[in-house]
Each structure stands twice: as C-alpha cells, then as structure tokens.
Design goal:
Layout (H helix, E strand, L loop, with lengths): L19 H25 L15 H18 L5 H20 L3
Helix pairs in contact: 1-2, 1-3
Length: 105
C-alpha cells in the first residue's frame, strides 16, 4: 500500500537552457511583436490620422504610417508596456517544451 504523503513524484525532465544567440533572437522577436502591437494601439488612438502635418498630398498617409511605426519601435526599445517580457518568457517556455517533446532536453 502506498502512502500518499511519501509517494514519489513523477520525474520531469529539466528544461534545457536557451543559448545566448537564441535568447537574443527571441528577445528581438518579442520586441518586434510589441512594437507592432503598440503601432496598432497608436493608430487606434488616432496618432496616424492625417492632419496635413506633412503638407498634405498622396504620400502623407504613407509617411504618417512610417512615423507611427518608428514611434512604436522606439517605445518598445525603451521598455514598452511589458508585453515583450511576457512574450519572451512564453517563447522560452515553449522552447523547453519543444525540447522535452523531441527528447533533446
């Protein structure tokens, strides 16, 4: 008869460590995603709406969207809203799960 207090726990493989190069790539992907998310939020808030700030014309819409994307990228590089950190943690956890499934851990 097995005592539930002293029953052994099933062994779980230790997740593998992510290499520095892979971590840097995942960090960049997370920052890029956060920048895209912030750009959409800024557009929804009306930042990219043309106000003749570039003098009007057909190219104003294109340049206004470039301005919004660059502002969002700079916001993400400066720390953003914390979304990149959560995405990075999820990606690293997923890397560990993928290693466990393939037996590479």
């Amino acid at each position: 008869m097995s005592d539930p207090v002293s029953a052994p726990l099933p062994a779980r493989p230790v997740p593998r460590a992510v290499s520095p190069e892979r971590r840097a790539a995942l960090e960049q992907a997370a920052r890029d995603f956060e920048a895209s998310f912030l750009a959409e939020m800024l557009k929804a808030a009306g930042l990219g709406k043309p106000r003749e700030s570039f003098g009007g014309g057909a190219g104003e819409d294109a340049f206004a969207s470039l301005l919004v994307r660059e502002q969002a990228r700079l916001m993400a590089e400066a720390g953003g809203i914390g979304l990149a950190e959560h995405i990075l943690n999820a990606l690293i956890a997923r890397e560990g799960l993928a290693a466990e499934e393939t037996g590479d851990a």
